[in-house]
Specification:
GO terms for molecular function: hydrolase activity. It is found in: Cytoplasm, Cytosol. Belongs to the dienelactone hydrolase family. This is Carboxymethylenebutenolidase homolog. The chain has an 8-stranded mixed beta sheet with strand order 1-2-4-3-5-6-7-8, with helices on both faces. The protein has one domain: Alpha/Beta hydrolase fold, catalytic domain (Rossmann fold, 3-Layer(aba) Sandwich), CATH 3.40.50.1820. It is α/β, with parallel strands linked by helices and 243 residues long. The protein is built from 6 helices and 8 strands; from the N terminus they run E-E-E-H-E-H-H-E-H-E-E-H-E-H.
């Protein structure tokens, strides 16, 4: 039985003027931000249930691009409606059936091809939040083209196959995330220790709820700000270590 699995207060978000632009890649729209200099390093950002247009996710794309990566957030919902704060949680399980974070392989391949052929990317990482964190976990088990991954508060539940990661992966969680129990994080840690042959890291940030790491500076609460900034720095450091 799923509780409100991704319920977090998306609240009143301040406006955000994006630095990047939108592109069409085959059947997918995507938001892209590039650094001001040439680089052959790229990062794919996978959005949460609120989709690729959500200001918070575009802020993250711009933030990563500012560290010197071609950064892209494709619409993994392929033009279908994202979850809206006005939708009813009773319908969530049904919505998830049509938006499966473990069925993102085709779109990931399209985006990887674009980054390699159109942007000259040689090393490509992936970062995902919530729904996108689950997608990252899945892709890091399936796609060797992704050099490193960061999965933020997304966990693949109840699957024996979720531990044999192909490339270095960092799992970020909030201590007060009501969607992911501490037992699940402990299990992940135990099993990775047992099965994982590549570098991995798990970190839990004190007092943080689901969705904490996407907030723009002006939307952060003062008590949470140090943890949000630390999680972001850890995310970037992990990417820089491998890409």
């Amino acid at each position: 039985q799923m509780a409100d699995p991704f319920l977090y207060n998306s609240g009143e978000r301040s406006h955000y003027g994006c630095l990047g632009h939108e592109v069409q890649i085959e059947h997918i729209k995507a938001y892209v931000c590039r650094p001001s200099f040439f680089t052959d390093k790229a990062v794919i950002v996978i959005h949460d249930i609120f989709g690729w247009l959500f200001p918070d996710i575009r802020y993250i794309v711009d933030l990563i691009a500012g560290h010197g990566y071609i950064t892209i957030c494709p619409d993994f919902f392929k033009g279908t409606d994202p979850w809206k704060t006005t939708d009813h949680w009773a319908d969530f399980a049904d919505w998830m059936k049509h938006h499966d974070p473990m069925k993102v392989d085709k779109e990931a391949d399209v985006v990887l091809k674009y980054l390699k052929e159109q942007c000259g990317a040689k090393k490509i990482g992936v970062v995902g939040f919530s729904w996108g964190g689950m997608a990252v976990h899945h892709l890091m088990l399936k796609n060797p083209q992704l050099t490193a991954g960061v999965s933020l508060y997304g966990i693949i539940r109840d699957s024996e196959e979720r531990y044999n990661l192909l490339n270095p992966t960092f799992f970020i969680f909030g201590e007060k995330d009501h969607t992911i129990s501490f037992d699940q994080i402990t299990l992940l840690e135990e099993k990775l220790k047992q099965y994982c042959k590549v570098a991995y890291k798990i970190k839990v940030y004190p007092g943080q709820v689901h969705g904490f790491a996407q907030l723009k500076p002006e939307d952060m609460k003062p008590d949470d700000k140090p943890y949000i900034e630390e999680a972001r720095k850890d995310m970037i450091d992990w990417i820089k270590m491998f890409i």
